[in-house]
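3.2 Worked example (two chains)
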Amino acid sequence: MSRLRTLAAIPLVVTLCNATASAQTLGGWSSAFWRTGVQPDDATIRQLLVYQNQLLAVGSFAGLSRAETNGIARWDGTGWLPFGATGCSEGGAIYAAVEFEGDLVVAGRFSSMDSTPAASVARWTGSDWQPLGDGFNDDVDALHVHAGELFAGGKFTLSGSTPTARLAKWNGTSWEQYAEVSATVNVITTYGTNVAIGGTFTIVNGGAASRLAVELAPGIWTDFLGGVNSTVNALVEAEGRLVVGGSFSLAGGVPVVRAAGWDGLTWQPMDLDANGSALGLQVADGVLYATGSFHGGGKLYVVKWEDSAWRALDDLVAPNGWCWSAVSWQGKLHVGGQFRAVGSDIVRGFARFDGVTWEAPEPPHGFEGTVWALEPHEGHLAIGGDITAIHGEAFPGVALWDSGTFLPLGDGLNGRVRALASTPLGLVAGGDFTASGTRPIPRVALWDGTEWQALGAGLDHTVTCLAWYDGAVHAGGYFEVGPSEAHVARWNGTEWESLGVGPRGILTAMGSYEGMLVVGGDFVFAGPSLASHVAAWTGTSWEGMGHGLPEPATCFQALGPVLAAGATNGGGFRAWNGVDWLEDPPLPGVTTVYSLGTFGGEFVAGTYSGVFVLRDGAWAPWPEAVTRGGVRAFAEFDGALWTGGDFQFAGPHSSASFGRWRDPLPLTRVQDVANQDRSNPLPEGLGVTYVVGSELLLRTSSERADIYDVRGRRVGTVSLLPVDESTRSFLWDGRNTGGSAVSSGIYFLR
């Protein structure tokens, strides 16, 4: 009987819930705002390889587009998917991968794969990860299969208690030392019938070997006339010679520039550029490619060897940053690295070349730039910052969220939007901008529903904060207004005017509280009053507020009778008790509060360490962390908590600069499941249509979902497609995330 013959005949139980198999609720951070490419910003694809007709990427990343996986992912032709479940341990990285005896072996710096303990090296068996012996005590930088045997190189010195000084061979049950190497092995390859290694070492088995060594006979190594004089990162046999790449300038005493070839007798220069370094050498479809950073002739990061010289693939367009690896797959050259664009296209870490032009393999998605301000306005959510694009469309400075869609606001604004205020006049924006399209609008603007309008002559320097107070728009910042050169101003309908002799310093925060305009900033006096970093305008005069704040305020937030302030440089959180500002309760381990908001009747604080909530008299971390950047804005809108900043993850999801949290809701079970009998190997896939409860419609209209087996293991990922107002469908090919057919059984959609 075929393995998949009864897959659909046995009921496929479909539920919708959180990421874990035991979850009983739906909610948390949205996965809708993922960003294309490697995540976070400093992430890198170290190697691309083809394994069982699949294109895999490994590296030091915590996600690839919407694939929530550490260090490894697979490309299905249109998008990235996890390979296995969660990848390597959090904070780890995979530096090398190779196919060995039909299995995939990966290595790098990690302590587990899919939660299975593994010390920097592991083996994928087709259904799960297994450790490979005792692993290693330090980084593994290279893997290679030579003459049917598996080799590993790196910084390690031990496998368990066995000495393995930086070069080891797998004997079928454990790792054993293959040669004693004095420093890091970066690369291993085959040259003729011999093992060749490169790195930073100078001694192999007690003999001189300057960054390069080839084993001529068991235990006998040579560096071919003295090796090279600096690091070797790449080795490959091509055109009948050993090609070496790195950061060296001499090979066997011959002047060379970052690359050279050994023909068996002599070294020949294969010069790249003195200002760069070769990170990889690969042969794809008979062509030799070098990847790295080569600045000569305009910054190049991937070149090909043609007519005895290195040449650009495209004379006009190229990746704009470091490239590590190149591989041919389905007739195109795919490149991985740390670049962020190809030409004018936003492409993070992964691009392809079709022989004529560079391509972005997947359409852009997510935010480009930092969100500094969020403001509910007339049933929408206004978003401001130094954003430039959303989902690949131009959104200069500002956007509007409208029931699942981002809308532009006219021509946008040409600089950072630092503050937004919803007022009876309309939406007001303040910041560093000077124009909307071709229309001058200096630093403060009013959206009239059709276009941005200047408010008088504008202001002469940055606006950092806005508030509606006493029937008028008020602004604070770096600017100066009136004879007193005030940094706070009121729009009187015709022009900007000062509020007496205000605070004598830059303003950074503003809010309305109990009939007063409260401002914070870098000042110690407001008019004649002593006011340490915070002051209140009563409508007629400026007053200090208690002993003030220890550092400039970054934000204010009122909740009922309580006014709270966030501050910089150790100022943390302070609450006004009517007499003075108290650090009550303190926010442990946080020096700067970037933003304050409310959600469900509780204070929330945004910091570089994520989101905190003030609950039961104490601060607690948010249930799911916001990481890799600061949270600089909050808004409570449409039953959700919205966040903005320069963060890159919200919970497990890629959610660059913009996030949405919904409190968990009771799980709604599927009301109808179609059971269909299909033959192996499911050429057209397994299709299931089902009806969901109305409260789930918005959350399932364009999401992916995971398929779990009865043991709670994630085996696949599918897209949920809307059929009509209340029906969703998905198509599954009966394969797991590694591309292998699954066994018959009951599976769960989550």
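3.2.1 Second chain
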Amino acid sequence: MRNVVDKLVAPSCVAEILPLIAAWLIFEHSIKTFIHKGLTFFRGFSERLPSFPQWLWVKMWISFVRLAVGQAV
């Protein structure tokens, strides 16, 4: 068991894992920001155009995100 712990905290292992963790945190933050800004954008449209219900704008945004994610994959 001690060998496993020693390997996990070895400088080379930490040097490999830290950039991956940092990249994931940056990616996660950018996705959350993208979704938040998009929902705010569509919410602004729904307030200016009251004939469209807000759930429709949210549904359009979700479709857009799915399309963007599908294109990225």
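3.3 Remarks
Residues 21 and 27 are 10 Å apart (CA to CA).
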